[in-house]
Design goal:
317 residues, alpha+beta, Helix Hairpins, Immunoglobulin-like, Cytochrome Bc1 Complex, Chain D, domain 2, 5-stranded mixed beta sheet, 22% strand, elongated
């Protein structure tokens, strides 16, 4: 009936088709009977109303049949729900963090990515947590959706059955940029996934940067650019000067900006210390004209990552 990009989709589609089919059948039946009764018992044919006595057999029939149908729908819904909630042993685990307004995917070997890469035909379990407000991870093609709640850990699983790239959405309104909280899941052959999994390890990535550019500032800028992307910074801060819900990174470093500290306005120069404080204590100095939406990155980014992000922002002059 529909494209089944994951094993879960088959069960969800079956239950949906079952409930839809039963609903359409009874809608047609009830509408037909309604029209027949209106025509057959209209006032012109029966000007004098007559009392109609009950029919025990009919009442039992229209009570028993719907009860059986409801139990059938409940049964298939229940077993499908149980299947969806219990991941098979050995499923590959990926930690997923939802934050305003992006997704971060972290693999067991330390890879962090803003795109979910999964191998074809292998079960994958997503461990879901939120950094700020309630989100909801939704992969329409896989028919899976799960709330991502602060202070809780939820999970969902699937086995991808079709190669390709599929949308990941947030299905819970989470603020101004909710509609832009988009990501993708890429289903690739197992051999290709294993190659990506090995070559994108943090150690391998660092070795590649060092080999190409050494320990120079250029390497720090490149790492900072990647961090800004995978940490979701560009969901709020543009890199081309265009306005978003937070100041653009372009031309930011070295500029003078007006901030609200407590109840007072003051002028500050955007330097290393200001950017570092803005990441760890974002509500300490609120840029005038913008809302205090950024969550604290304390415990989320390391000192080395902060230095790399600052180096990248410096480069956007």
């Amino acid at each position: 009936m529909f494209s089944s990009a994951a094993n879960i989709a088959e069960k969800v589609d079956f239950v949906f088709a079952l409930v839809l089919g039963i609903s359409i059948f009874f809608m047609v039946l009830i509408t037909t009977l309604l029209v027949v009764f209106v025509l057959k018992y209209r006032r012109s044919r029966h000007p004098k109303a007559e009392n109609i006595r009950g029919n025990t057999a009919l009442e039992i029939t229209w009570t028993v049949i719907p009860t059986i149908l409801v139990l059938i729908m409940f049964y298939y819904g229940w077993i499908s729900f149980g299947f969806m909630r219990k991941a098979p042993p050995g499923a590959m685990e990926v930690k997923v963090t939802g934050r305003m307004w992006s997704w971060l995917f972290e693999y067991e070997n330390g890879i962090q990515s803003d795109t979910l890469y999964v191998p074809y035909g292998k079960p994958v379990k997503l461990i879901l947590s939120s950094q700020d407000v309630i989100h909801s991870l939704f992969i329409p093609a896989f028919r899976v959706k799960q709330d991502v709640v602060p202070g809780m850990t939820n999970s969902l699983w699937f086995t991808a059955q079709e190669l390709g790239t599929y949308d990941i959405l947030c299905a819970e309104y989470c603020g101004l940029q909710h509609a832009y909280m988009l990501a993708a899941v890429k289903v690739v052959p197992e051999e290709e996934f294993l190659h990506w999994y090995e070559t994108n390890r943090p150690e391998a990535t660092q070795e590649e940067v060092t080999a190409q550019e050494g320990a120079s500032s250029a390497g720090s800028v490149k790492r900072g650019e990647r961090l800004v992307r995978i940490r979701g910074c560009i969901a709020c801060h543009s890199t081309d000067g265009s306005p978003r819900v937070s100041p653009s990174f372009k031309g930011l470093y070295g500029s003078t900006t007006t901030v609200i500290t407590g109840d007072k306005e003051r002028q500050v120069v955007v330097d290393d210390e200001y950017i570092r404080r803005s990441m760890l204590e974002p509500n300490a100095d609120i840029v005038k004209g913008f809302q205090p939406l950024m969550p604290s990155q304390k415990g989320v980014v390391t000192e080395e990552e902060i230095r790399d992000i600052i180096a990248y922002i410096k480069s956007l002059k």
